[in-house]
TrEMBL record:
<feature type="transmembrane region" description="Helical">
    <location>
        <begin position="114"/>
        <end position="133"/>
    </location>
</feature>
<keyword id="KW-0472">Membrane</keyword>
<protein>
    <submittedName>
        <fullName>Uncharacterized protein</fullName>
    </submittedName>
</protein>
<feature type="transmembrane region" description="Helical">
    <location>
        <begin position="56"/>
        <end position="75"/>
    </location>
</feature>
<feature type="transmembrane region" description="Helical">
    <location>
        <begin position="145"/>
        <end position="171"/>
    </location>
</feature>
<keyword id="KW-1133">Transmembrane helix</keyword>
<keyword id="KW-0812">Transmembrane</keyword>
Amino acid sequence: MIALTIILCIFLVLLFTSRQSYPWAIAVAVPIYAWLCWIITRPLPISSNWGAVDRFIIWIALFLSIIPALLRLMFVHRSFDESPSEIDWKPVQASSLFVAIWGGAWLLTPTVPALAGAATCVTIGLLVSVAMFGIARRMPRHRVILVTAGTAMITGVIAILIWPLAVVLAAEQRAAGRPYCLMVAQGINYRTANNLLDLTPLIMRGHEGRRSAANYHGELLISGEANRNWSYEQVDFFDESRDNKPPNCVAAVGFARNLPWL
């Protein structure tokens, strides 16, 4: 499995990397470990061939790879020919902060955007990131942390603004010139997509309280064809819908590409 290969590579890097390079090794490992933890804890899509045994094996591998890494970390802290204070841990701090900001944003969506609006969240993220970069110029001591926070937010905003283009492209390719419409998740229900920001993870996220919730982010309704659920993993309207709900939006040719941004 690819996940086990990644874990083995990280384990070897953390075990054998040089003392001065160890903070950089941890900085790389933190987002990868966070991604793996998210992968094995998220709801399974209908098309996934992962099972409980696969997840259990990966959890064990993660646990076994962390123990030697912690022992090596204790060894790095020991004072031999140079003081541990000379090791720069800023890469670890920056990497952990980046993951924390993205993870926090993921946990807050779609609840907060559903209440405040996707456009409001994007605007706030953009303003805060600009403020972080501005403050960093006046506070050299905390520059790394501030720049990291600003970078995490601005990259998130850019990713959100670009993402609807992928959804529109997938919908147009599936529709192949036929009338269609898009519905996006709103808790455990659906509503018609009103703008392009509705097609982002800020809004188009299914309720994750059930095993297969990842399949209920959004739905493509094509005239004369079975409805299809949006899959972030496949970046496509991949699985046929099993909801059997009647359409509640009006199909039109080029529905997604004619949506306004706001």
